[in-house]
Amino acid sequence: MVGPAAVRYAKPASRYYGVIQRFLMRLAETPMRKLILALPLIALLAAAPSHARGACAVGEAISINDLPAQGRTTLALIAAGGPFPNGRDGVIFGNRERLLPKAPRGFYHEYTVRTPGARNRGARRIVCGGDQRATEPCYYSDDHYQSFKCIVR
Prior knowledge:
By secondary structure, the chain is α+β, with helices and mostly antiparallel strands.
């Protein structure tokens, strides 16, 4: 608004500004100020997915260096967006086993980790959440989804 009406609406805000400022100054002087000021941070950390806090959401973890060579190759292909050797790579993983953290349908995608000597896709998979080029969070299964390990950097 322009004109006298704008000034009329600005006056109450300036009155409350002083009250709020005095309240915040008194709050900063209290012994509980550290806790009160830390509450928003605590709430954010509690609401963050466990993989974002650095903890493995499925229990065990495996480092990239401990993955089989074919697993490291698959992770590199995921980060590059392909091309993938198997036509089923990148399809939506339904998490029917409910071993991974709960997420909306379409969040997880599965990728084949080649198994030397196998005539089919084998049992080894990498499942990643989020964007299809995202490599976090990713989980490794060497027993066709019976168990998962978080892939940590």
